[in-house]
Amino acid sequence: MSEHDRPAEQHQPQYGQPQYGQPQSGQPQSGQPQSGQPQWTGQPQTQVPQPNPPVTKGFFSSLFDISFDTFVTPKVIRVLYLLIIIVTVLSAFVYIVLAFKASPGLGLLTLFVLAPLFTIIWLAIWRIILEAFMVIFRIAEDVRSMRNR
Question: In which element (H, E) is residue 90 found?
């Protein structure tokens, strides 16, 4: 049985090792640090400089920012994707109606196969394009924060 497998009451400290809760030799008994020694507060003593947070402006202040310190595109992309979803679903609905006017068989095919496929593929294409734009702008923000450090 190893030392770690024994119950707590059978564990004997090695010769020269202090028991838990007892001060080690050379430590003050009163709990006060010796003069000239820093007291441990639980946090590191060195302060790491925090990077400046990115400047956040509203949509219109970003839109009319002549120095281009803030980007409008990340704010616009969310709204743009929502509009793309709405237009895509409405387009699929129009295709379904037109397919039913042409023939009931084509209408059912469009309703259950073509319109959902069109919607999924079209939204995936636009999502990939918009995510690529977001990645470019996030890279630019990260480079700016590294430059400001």
Answer: helix 73-102
What is the arithmetic mean of pLDDT over 32-38? 57
pLDDT band at 53 (very low <50, low <70, confident <90, very high): low
Q: Residue 64 pLDDT > 60, yes or no? A: yes
Tell me 42's DSSP state.
S
- Distance from C-alpha of 112 to C-alpha of 105, rounded to nearest angstrom: 11
Backbone angles phi, psi at 51, to 5 degrees: -70, 150
Q: pLDDT for 72-117, tens place per residue?
A: 888 899 999 999 999 999 999 999 999 999 999 999 999 999 999 9
The length of the chain in residues reads 149
Instruction: Give SS3 for 69.
Output: coil
Q: 49 near 109, Cβ under 8 Å?
A: no
Task: Please say whether the beta carbons of 56 and 70 come within 8 A.
Answer: yes
Domain ranges (residues) in the chain: 59-148
Are 125 and 140 in contact, with CB atoms under 8 Å apart?
A: no
CA 17 to chain centre: 46
Burial of 92 (0-12, 13-18, 19+ CB in 10 A): buried
CA pair distance 107, 113, nearest whole angstrom: 10
